[in-house]
Specification:
By secondary structure, the chain is an all-beta fold. Helix content is 0%, strand content 60%. The chain has a 17-stranded parallel sheet that branches. The chain starts with a strand and ends in a 5-residue tail after the last strand. The model is unreliable at 1-11 (pLDDT under 50).
């Protein structure tokens, strides 16, 4: 079963997870659940507090860490999911500063949420997976590395799924492309040395 960490946190509080070890198996009835850490909204409200993860090992038969409409900061750790190492959706605010994220589909994924990556390693464990997958929402990358078939990919979803991708740092390695976009715009800043 997943570890729910934010159910009882009141407004402006922070839950801190230090060096935990969490492992969950796949639920055959719902293969994208459970997550090793599930940061979810409650009663239709955005999660009022913040979850901070400082190290540890989180493994799941689906998604290692899932942020649904919450607020999470990750300062390190190892996150291994059968599908995704980390995923954020439904306006879940996420700031990934360090750590290793691995999954067959993607090391990390963002849909309809803002994701900031300033460090860490995002790796696909499958030949056709990607480092970071962007379906919709906003991805800002200032550091870290992403590796897979594509380092970072904006998926070819419907035109209604708008994504904003801004890259000012980092290393992106792909078997085909480091950065791959499907009919999308990307802002890239290159610092002169």
């Amino acid at each position: 079963k997943s570890t729910t960490v934010c159910k009882d946190i009141k407004s402006n509080n922070t839950a801190v997870i230090n060096n935990a070890t969490v492992r969950t198996d796949m639920d055959k009835q719902n293969p994208y659940n459970p997550a090793a850490v599930d940061i979810a909204n409650f009663n239709g409200q955005q999660f009022p507090g913040k979850v901070v993860i400082n190290g540890g090992t989180y493994q799941s038969g689906a998604i290692a860490v899932l942020n649904v409409n919450g607020n999470v900061e990750i300062n390190g750790g190892t996150f291994i999911g059968e599908y995704y190492g980390f995923a954020t959706t439904n306006n879940g605010h996420s700031n990934l500063k360090a750590g290793t994220y691995k999954g067959a589909i993607a090391g990390a994924a963002v849909a309809n949420a803002p994701l900031t990556v300033s460090g860490g390693s995002f790796v696909s464990t499958a030949d056709d997976g990607v480092g970071i997958e962007v379906e919709s929402g906003a991805l800002t990358v200032t550091g870290g590395s992403a590796k897979g078939k594509f380092g970072i990919v904006k998926t070819d979803s419907s035109s209604e799924d708008m994504a904003e991708v801004k890259v000012t740092g980092g290393t992106f390695t792909g078997k085909e492309d480091g950065l791959h976009l499907h009919n999308s715009d990307i802002e890239i800043s290159i610092l002169e040395m």
